[in-house]
Every structure is written in C-alpha cells, then in structure tokens.
Amino acid sequence: MRPIEWKVEAADGNARCGTLRTRRSVIETPVFMPVGTQASVKGVRFEWLEQEMDARIILGNTYHLFLRPGVETFKKIGGLHRFSTWNRSYLTDSGGFQVFSLNDLRKLTEEGVEFRSHLDGSKKFLSPEVSMEIQAALGSEIVMVFDECPPGDAGHEATRKSLELTARWAKRSRDRFDRLQVEGDDLGHIEADGLSGHQSLFGIVQGAGHFDLREESLERTVDIGFDGYAIGGLSVGEEKSVMYGVLEHIAPKMPADAPRYLMGVGTPEDLLEAVSHGVDMFDCVMPTRNGRTGGVFTSSGKINIRNARFAADDGPLDKECGCSVCRRYSRAYLRHLYQAGEMAAATLISHHNLFFYLDLMRKTRDAIRNRRFGAFKKDFLAGLAENDTVDV
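Given the sequence above, the corresponding structure tokens read:
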C-alpha cells in the first residue's frame, strides 16, 4: 500500500487540479497550506480552519518543534496530531531553511549543520538523518528532505556546490526515511482508507535562478525517487521575474504523476502564476503575518486597515468575501481594534486573509475544471490592480 494517492482530475493548459489522498484527509489541489510553524496557525483556531475554511492540510516546522517542545515530548504524547489536536494532514518542513537563515550561528559540514538555538544559545545539530528521525516522531503525512537553500541571487559556482550537497543529502534523507518506515511502526502511524500508516517523502529541487542547475537538480532528485517534488529556493531575495522564469522553465518538466509543491510562496499573484505552470501545492506566512500588522488581502488588492480613510467605513473588508469576519464586522470597527491595541484585530484579519487564500484556491480549481483558468486569472489580477497604488 502507498502512503498517499495522487490523481490529476482536470487540466487547462499546464494548470491542473487533482486529488491528494493521505491517511487523514482528501486534499483537493491546487491547495494553499496554512503555516502552523509551532503546531499552531498564528491567531487562528483549528475549529475555524476546519469548519469555516475546510483546510485539509497545514504545515509544521521541524526546526522549531525540535527546539520546543522537543522530540521526547512528541514520542511520549504520540506525535504531532495528538499533541496539537489537528487531526487532518500535516506537512512538515525539514528545518533546513531555518537553519541556513541563522548565518553566523551555524557551522556547515558534509555531515550536517551545527547551530546555536535562537531560544537559549545551546548547541544543536541537524542532518538528513536527524531531520528524518524528528519528522518520524512528529508523524506528519508528508515529510520533506533535508536540503541546503542557497540565496536567490547566488552565483553559478556557489549554487552548483550547494546543489551537489543537496543531492547527497536527499539520498541520505531517502535512505534514513525508508529504514524508519520499516522500523518505526511504534511512532503513532495509523492506517486508514486503504492507505498504509506510513509517511510520504517529498524531494526538493534547488538551483537558484540558473535553469541548467534547476534541470540537473530535478533529474538527480527524480533519479532518487520521491512521492512528490518541491521547488525550493524561490522568494528568497531574487527578483520576481527570476522566480517566474524558473517556474515557467522547471515546473512543467517535473513528474506529471506526482504532486508539485512550491515552497514558501507567496502573494495571490504568485500563486496564480505558479498554477499556470502546473504547480499543485503552496504554503506561505503572508496571510497571518500581514494580518498581525493590519494588511488585508481583498479581491480589489491589498489594503492596510490602519489607514485613516477607513475610520468611518462601515463596509466589510471585502464585499466579495463570504467569510464570517466580512459578514459581521466593518472596516471601521477593525481599524478601531488595531488602534486600541486589541488582540482580536490580528486574529480577525488573519482569519479573513486565510479564508481569502483558501477561497482563491477553490475558485482556481473550479476555473480549471471548467477550462476557463486563463480568463479567471486575467480577471482576478485586474481586480487586484484596483488598489495597486493605495495602502500597499
């Protein structure tokens, strides 16, 4: 039995929609995964994600959960799902991106990365093997290989060196993962709906903005063999045109019979661009990070609710939105909450933003099924341009 099942249901050009079935949920793609870095989506209750937004999968982060509460906690309690009470699917990032963001606090070797915890300065170590062991204890449905993420503007030579290390680490991740799936049936795995209780492993394609290295990374990653394939190393400082160029070049070349995941991206415009090239899965902190500072995503573009022009605006955040926040609260009231320093402000805006992203994916799937994705993308982007010069 396979740990996941993947099926493309419809296509419109390179854009496609499908079904990804895990032991815990049936996930319709293209899908946006809310980021639950610390086993919690910031400011948003799981009940809202389940009942109103119908989120089928969220993301957790190995680096942060490794540091706090720690692997032993998950082993004692029985995994991330039982610990957090999120009973739908989890994808866990390997921790590589966070480790490599530490810069001076880390020491990179062939074996792995030694670093100092940003919490208490204590020495820690992550490697492909350690990352796989942590993610096995977490019990996520989708596990990511441990990779190195070079800067988006890295030169060709530096990117090739990073790619070589990522390829070696991918093989080590695969080997340790496979052994753990045989040995680790005591780690809280469950069987459901005809699928095995084991986890699935996704490989990561690196190469920065260099098309030849992206192709080489893809070839070497596919040769190892994974249940799904991710595009890493984008939206890390490169120009938007570089990211879009990489997506156009590499996404259609990725295996058609496996999910394609674009890591850590991005704006609504970015998601639609990626979908047009065949990407199926996304995650990004933008909806909740913006929500905490008053940034609101709407069908007519992004606004900042703290702007004085909303002080007496009794309309909803987005007249086209059906979320419970837009149905009940006005822009004027939400602005007041921010100005008054009320915690509810960040919660309510984050709620709306996540609903907006998940609803965008629902509309995208419908457009692909009806073979009108191109028109939908054009109309949606035209709507976003209404506020291009206001409150961004």
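The first helix runs from residue 46 to 51. Try to locate this feature in the token string yourself.
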